Structures are given as structure tokens and as C-alpha cells.
Amino acid sequence: MSTLPKVAWVGLGIMGSPMSENLIKAGYQVTGFTLEQEKLDRLSAAGGTAAGSIADAVRDADVIVTMVPASPQVEAIAYGPDGILENAKSGALLVDMSSITPQTSVDLAKAAKDKGIRVLDAPVSGGEAGAIEAVLSIMVGGEQADFDEAKPLLEALGKTIVLCGPHGSGQTVKAANQLIVAVNIQACAEAVVFLEKSGVDLKAALDVLNGGLAGSTVLTRKKDNFLGRDFKPGFRIDLHHKDMGIVTDAARNVGAALPVGAVVAQLVASLRAQGDGGLDHSALLRAVERLSGAQV
């Protein structure tokens, strides 16, 4: 019999499915719930257990991991008679790995404490590839003791795992992460259009750029997307639009100016308004191409 904690996983999307499977590979007993039957079937095929409801998934769990798109979805699965807080056992640890507003995380931790449930906000960076390869960067907010308890489980999901401060801190750092990523993708996209219009061998140019100071994880991960115009979603524009809203709002609240970030947030919003919200965020290239006169 395994001595590892029993895990409930709520949210089996692009990120949640491979992450939950990595826990199963690490020996954890995982019971999952999501709205799509095919995702539940995938979990079962990987050795997990599909639950018929949130209540069924979390009832006996020692650790509950959530990975859903945004604050409204976190609130929907956490609160109410059918939600996590009403059905999880006292003493359970809730690890929310969604990317949401810092205030939503603070409010959730406070509400959960009244139910005897501990909470960590633990958003991630690394995209679908990082989730599959279990090399995510995980930024955590919460209590040190809860972080220490969760760390072995998080080490089955990621490579860089850091407690950033009290509740909400993980989400604040994730917002900063999304700011950096969006600006980086935008810069890469502009460089790609500039290089192509100049008649340079794009693959050769990106290879040498990535070997110098202009190199980045973004360029490493997204280079093939740019070269092949492959915008199959690893992280959708719709979600990055949501995240840019989080960071611009949070920055306004603390009095931080984000002039470049504000421009990129508008470019992301424009791309979404043009019907590209379901594409990977590397599709920012399409916006630059349109601005440069291409019919995309």
C-alpha cells in the first residue's frame, strides 16, 4: 500500500492532463474530475480514477490539485454545496495551480481556513511542453509548512519550485511571468517579420540569435512555431489575454507603470478580437504580419 497522499485533480485540460499523468507515474493515486468525458477516459487509461463529480473526487483526498482557466472557474469549483470546500475533509491541502488574480487566491485561502482546509496558490510556467516533460517552473504562495508538505508532489511536476511569499504571492509572480513572456513573444514576432522582409534565412538567423543575449526560453520553445506558422495551442491567446488583464490591473493597484506591457496587452486583445483567440500565443506573429501589410 502506498504511503503517498491520495490526490484529487480537478481540471484536465492541456496542462492538467499531462500533469496528473506525471503524478500517476510518480506513484500517486489520482482521482480526477473534469467536464469532458474524453479527458476522464484519458486519465483512466493512464492509471487514474475518474470521478463523477467534484464531491466524489475530493471526499477522501489528502491533497486536492486544481488547474482551471481563470478566477471564475476556480470560484465555481471551490464554493457552493457541490464545491471543494464543502466536500473535502478537514486538514486537506488544496493546491490551486490555475493562473488567477492574487486577490482570488487570498480570498480562497481565507474561506478554506474556516473549513479547516489549507491552501497554496501554485501557478506554473512552461506551457504544454513543460507540463509533459515535468520541468515546469512553479511559483507558490502560502505557509512554509504547507509548502514543505506539498514540495515532493510538486517535484513530480516541475523543476524550479519556489515559495514566493504569503497567499497570493505565487499569482503575483505568475502575472509578472506572463508580462515577460508576452513582451518576449512580441519582440520575437517583430524580429521574424523584419528578418523575412529583409530576405535573411530565418532559421539560420533564429539559431544564431538564440545562442546570444537575445536567446530565451521563449525563442527556444516557439522557434518552430514561427518557422512553420504552426499555432496549435500550447497556451492560447484567450488565456494570455486574461493574464495580461490580471497583470495590468494588479500593477495599477500597486502603482507600477507598465508602458510596454500595456501596448502588448492591447496587441493580444486585438489578435483575440480578430478571431485568433484559440491559437497559441506565438500567433502574435500574425498580428505583426497584418500590421506589416500581409493578408493573414
Produce a short descriptive summary.
With 296 residues, the chain is an alpha/beta fold. The protein is built from 14 helices and nine strands. It is globular, with a radius of gyration of 20 Å.
Total helical elements: 14
What order do the SSEs take from the amino end to the carboxyl end, as H and E? EHEHEHEHHEHEEHEHEHHHHHH
Helicity, in percent? 40-55%
Widest sheet: strand ordering: 3-2-1-4-5-6
Largest sheet: 6 strands, parallel
Q: What's the Cα radius of gyration?
A: 20 Å
Which shape, going by the Cα principal axes?
Answer: globular
Strand content: 5-15%
Structure in words:
- Pfam families: NAD_binding_11 (PF14833), NAD_binding_2 (PF03446).
- One of its GO terms (molecular function) is 2-hydroxy-3-oxopropionate reductase activity.
- The protein has 14 helices and nine strands.
- The protein is α/β, with parallel strands linked by helices and 296 residues long.
- The strands form two sheets. Strands 3-2-1-4-5-6 form a six-stranded parallel β-sheet, sandwiched between helices. Strands 7-8-9 form a three-stranded mixed β-sheet.
- α6 links the parallel β5 and β6.
- α9 crosses α12 and α9 packs across α14.
- It is globular.
- The termini are far apart.
- The mean pLDDT is 97.
List keywords for this structure.
296 residues; 54% helix; alpha/beta; EC 1.1.1.60; 6-stranded parallel beta sheet; single chain
Strand and helix layout:
Elements: E1 7-10, H1 16-25, E2 30-33, H2 37-45, E3 49-50, H3 54-58, E4 63-66, H4 71-78, H5 84-87, E5 93-96, H6 102-113, E6 118-121, E7 124-125, H7 127-133, E8 136-141, H8 144-154, E9 158-165, H9 169-197, H10 202-210, H11 217-228, H12 237-254, H13 259-276, H14 284-291
Parallel strand pairs: 1-2, 1-4, 2-3, 4-5, 5-6, 8-9
Antiparallel strand pairs: 7-8
